[in-house]
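Objective 1.3, modelling of assemblies. Example input:
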Amino acid sequence: DVKVTQSSRYLVKRTGEKVFLECVQDMDHENMFWYRQDPGLGLRLIYFSYDVKMKEKGDIPEGYSVSREKKERFSLILESASTNQTSMYLCASTVGENEQFFGPGTRLTVL
Amino acid sequence: QKEVEQNSGPLSVPEGAIASLNCTYSDRGSQSFFWYRQYSGKSPELIMFIYSNGDKEDGRFTAQLNKASQYVSLLIRDSQPSDSATYLCAVNLAGAGSYQLTFGKGTKLSVIP
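Predicted structure (tokens):
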């Protein structure tokens, strides 16, 4: 059974804090993605990765960075959290052009 | 700019009726099309995918693709209250070295008992 896990379901941080969101997949997928989902705006791609140590900017990369040191793990980093980064963050993985499998999501609140 | 458009809804249908969800996309080179279902507070899960023009059926679900009109739809027959969710249309531009999906904003479906 395919599985994508995320480090936290709920997270509360303060403005200016450095925040790490971690995603792990056990399907040996090459491609991993980070999205944020906001009411009325839908799913928006932040960053994605095709391979270890590879990363590409998505539609809204500002204020975020990523790290992929191992194939199964893809981390999203908020260098200095701001209130406008309060959102639901979803990680996904896929092989090629096929179905993306999503993790359960992390609801981040920045106070 | 690749765009995927969906009516936001809510779309309300009575139990047992057919729900019809529609999606249009702007990129004529798009090759792969996906329908995801997302329950409130949960992550998206795949219902159907379709690559070729025409219909594809899976149980109560039918995906329809018309590449000439840049239109993809999802029909849900015999709608059940458990089908109440937001349905996301996603489109992939294959062959360009990209495995990104562009998502629509979703259509909220309510099935009324």
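The two ends of chain B are 40 Å apart (CA to CA).
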